[in-house]
Structure formats: C-alpha cells, structure tokens
Amino acid sequence: MHLSGTDLTYVLLGLGALGAAALPALVARRPLSAPMVFLALGFAVFLLPVGLLPELDPVADASAVEHLTEICIVVALMGAGLAINRPFGRRSWSTTWQLLGVAMPLTILATAAVGWALGWAPAVALLVAAVLAPTDPVLAGEVRVGEPTDAEFDEDEVRFALTSEAGLNDGLAFPFVLAALALSAASATGWSAGWIGHWVWYDVLARIAIGTAVGVAFGRLLGWLFFRARSTALRLSEHSEGFVALAATFASYGLTEVIHGYGFLAVFATAVSIRTAERAHGYHRVMHSFMDQVERLLTAAILFLVGGFVAQGGLAALTWRGAVVALLLLLVIRPLIGFASQRRGAGARRERLVTAFFGIRGIGSFFYLSYALGHGRFAAPADGLWAAVAFTVLVSVVLHGTLATPVVARLDRLDGREAGPGGDAPESPHDPAPRAVPEG
User: Fold this and answer.
1) How far, rounded to the nearest angstrom, does the alpha carbon of residue 432 sit from its chain's CA centroid?
2) 119 Cβ contact list (under 8 Å, min separation 6)
3) How far apart are CA 130 and CA 301, in angstroms?
4) Can you tell me the distance from the alpha carbon of 134 to that of 136, in angstroms, rounded to the nearest whole number?
5) Can you give the three-state secondary structure of the chain, one letter per residue?
6) Which end of the chain is more exposed for a tag (fewer CB within 10 A), N or C?
7) Total domains present in the chain
8) In this predicted model, what pLDDT tens digit does every residue of 383-422 receive, in sequence order?
9) 342 falls within a domain
10) pLDDT value at residue 418
11) Is 8 a member of any domain?
12) pLDDT at 238 over 80
C-alpha cells in the first residue's frame, strides 16, 4: 500500500478539524491553550521520518503565507467585532483608545529603538517593531470576550480591552509597516526624512479615514438589510444563515482595499456597526458562531505549519538581537508601557496590569512580515527576520497561553465573577465595565 503526500494531507486536515472542535473544551480551565497544542503537534508531525511532508519556506512562499494569514485575520476581526457587547463611544471605549493611541506607538518606538541600539539598520528595526505591533487574543481564548449577549456591559474590562485593542490594531499597524518600507526605500541602512510628509497625510490620515468610513457605512447598510429590510428575502436575520458574516467580511475588506483604505480596519468597523444596528438580536450569535468555527480551523492550520517550520529548523537563523528584542518586548516594553498608558478609573490596578501583560503576538505578525518582504528590500536576511518574528510568537503563545487561564481565573475570583465555559464572565456588582458611560 502506497501512501502519497496528498493522502497524508487529507488525514492531517481531518484530524486537525476534529482537534479544532474538541481542544477548546479539553484544555478549558487548564494552564494550556489549543494554540500550544497545535504548535506542538505541528512540531512533532514534521519531525516524523515519513518523507512526504513539504519543506516549509516562508521566504520562498511569501505570497501563500500572506494570503493565508490575511484570510485568518479578517475572519477573526469580524468575529471579534460581532462579539463585543459594549456600545461604541469615547468614554465607554476609553481603555481601548489609551492602548491604541498611547501604548501602541510608544511600544513601536521603544522596540525600534532597542533594535537600532543593538545594531539593526533603522528601517529593519522599525519593520520588526511594526510587524510585532498587532496583538492577538485569539491565541489565548481566556482573555477575549465570549459570545454576543443581550447585555450591553457584561464584559469585564480586561477581556473587553484586549479584544477591542486587537480588533483595531491589526489595521492601525499598517501605517508603521508602510513607514518601514518607505524608510528602507529612501535609505536602506541609514535615516532619511523625505518620506514622512506623504506618509502622514496619505498612509496615516487618508487611508485610516477611508477604512473607517467604508467600514461604518457598509456595516450600517448591512445592519439595515439584515434587520429592517421590507422584503423578508433580504431580511437575512430571519434565515439564520451564519455564512452571511463571511460574505460581509470579504465584501467589506475587498471594497476598502480597492479604494486604498485599510481593509482590516474596515472589517472590524463593519462588524461593530452591524452589532449596533440591532444589538440584542440572536442573529449576532449565529454569525459569530460561524466565524468562530472558521477562525479556529484557519488558526489551527497556521499554527500547525508554524510548528512544522520550527521543526524543520526555522529558528536556526535566529540571532541574539532577534531573541533579545522579542524577550524585551514581551516581558518589559509592552507590560510597562501598556500599564503606564492606562489612566486610573478604566479599571482596577490589577486589571490594568493583566491588560498590559497580555499583549499577545500572533498571526498578524506573520501577515505583515510576508507583506513587507514582498513589497520592499531590507538590510537584513529574510530568514533571520522570519526567525525573530516566529520566535516572538512562539514565546508569546507558550507564555501567555500557560498563564492566561490561572491569571484570569484568579482575577475573576477577586472581582466576584465566575468565568463561563468560553472564558466570558457575567456581570457582577464588582465588575468595572458598568462604570463606563456609553456614548454615541
């Protein structure tokens, strides 16, 4: 009997899908996460001497990596936006604005400064810092919000802040990646300021505005269509078709990218706007459940391949600079800046500490690195950059995945909450979320 690579692929796909369905419940309330398991499985399988598994090379297959991670991100963004119960507003989302407007740029600057001080060219240091900017609580389910509910303020501050931060910073990291590309094009090994003017007005202001405007407008249109259209055939909320959320995701993303806005930002804005249209409707849970299933399948596949990449020697090109930058970012830079950026009042001190620490790095970093290396040249070996980013994500998945369950469980006990099966927690008299005042 002859086993082909295609046959083995089918076996792995089937077992992976079963694992994606079963693992979240199996590892619940344990100091372990499903992403850790998929990484370990990928590592173990690619060590087997079967001779049928492909050679994983993200440098040679940059386009495939870019598009696979791109799809996973937009799916995750739609799911995150649909899950958030808290009404959008300046004060009710104050922690999010602090993490995005203060913590994120300062973290990028501090990480880039460390890389530059250790010997990287300015453009390379800025690229690594920008690539590692997006946070990804998908990789530690205990620190994200659960399914949509009828209550507007039933998320605790930690889960809400980390989910909303990740939903927006996947798009807001793009200008910094483009800044690294512009700097590298202007001066590969030194510094040049000639690109800054165009970058500010176009890559920062114009493209963020386009992404936000398209996302909000498209989300409102879909919200009207789903819940208020006169025709029952068009009022899709009455048909309970979850895949409609996938259609909304791709349409919003594609439309925004066509007119040169930030599609990641538009997808999250679309999801939040759909949720706002009819907040208590059960159709949100149907759409979120479908997107969550697709997201888990894609995440499992990507992390399995990351484990295989490591097994095949993907970290052999890791330099001491890359390792130092990764550890300082995860253990020092993000925790300190993340905590300092949150003003008092948005949550208790322990909640601000947990929010600052769980700045999880994940799949967004892989997308941005593949995108940058496919659109520019940098004064550093591509395999070394991949090793540095993969090492950062690997450490983050293991560190945060191990600590998420016990830390958040203790936080819930201290705040008088009992975590649900999905990591979400019901409102309690001690929950800080109701102290926020909704606006807009």
Assistant:
1) 24
2) 321
3) 24
4) 7
5) CCCCHHHHHHHHHHHHHHHHHHHHHHCCCCCCCHHHHHHHHHHHHCCCCCCCCCCCCCCCCHHHHHHHHHHHHHHHHHHHHHHCCCCCCCCCCHHHHHHHHHHHHHHHHHHHHHHHHCCCCHHHHHHHHHHCCCCCHHHCHHHCCCCCCCCCCCCCHHHHHHHHHHHHHHHHCHHHHHHHHHHHHHCCCCCCCCCHHHHHHHHHHHHHHHHHHHHHHHHHHHHHHHHHCCCCCCCHHHCCCCCHHHHHHHHHHHHHHHCCCCHHHHHHHHHHHHHHHCCCCCHHHHHHHHHHHHHHHHHHHHHHHHHHHHHCCCCCCCCHHHHHHHHHHHHHHHHHHHHHHCCCCCCCHHHHHHHHHCCCCCHHHHHHHHHHHHHCCCCCCHHHHHHHHHHHHHHHHHHHHHHHHHHHHHHHHHCCCCCCCCCCCCCCCCCCHHHCCCCC
6) N
7) 1
8) 999 999 999 999 999 998 888 888 888 887 876 665 444 4
9) yes
10) 55
11) no
12) no
- Residue 96 contacts residue 164 (beta carbons within 8 Å): yes
Q: Does 23 fall in a domain?
A: no
Residue 25 falls within a domain, yes or no? no
Cβ within 8 Å of residue 230, ≥6 positions away? none
Q: Which amino acid is at 88?
A: F
| Ramachandran assignment for 279, one of left (phi > 0), alpha (psi -120 to 50 degrees), beta (any other) | alpha
Please enumerate in sequence order all residues whose Cβ is within 8 A of that of 231, keeping only pairs 6 or more positions apart, or say none: none
Identify the pLDDT of residue 437.
36
Q: If we measure between CA atoms, which residue out of 160, 165, 157 comes closest to residue 350?
A: 157
> What is the C-alpha separation between 323 and 392, in angstroms, rounded?
8
Output the average pLDDT for the chain: 84
Structural contact between residues 277 and 81, judged by C-beta atoms closer than 8 angstroms: no
- Dihedral pair phi/psi, residue 145, rounded to 5°: -70, 160
The model carries a pTM of 0.87
Express each pLDDT in 155-175 by its tens digit.
Answer: 678 888 888 898 899 889 999
Segments forming the whole domain that contains residue 344: 64-435
Q: Which amino acid is at 13?
A: L
CB 389 within 8 A of CB 366: yes
Q: What is the CATH number of the domain that holds 243?
A: 1.20.1530.20
pLDDT at position 145 is 72
Q: Of residues 151 and 33, which shows the higher confidence score?
A: 33
The pLDDT assigned to 346 comes to: 61
- Asked if residue 308 lies in contact with residue 56, where contact means CB atoms within 8 angstroms, the answer is yes
Structure tokens, 59: 């440098």
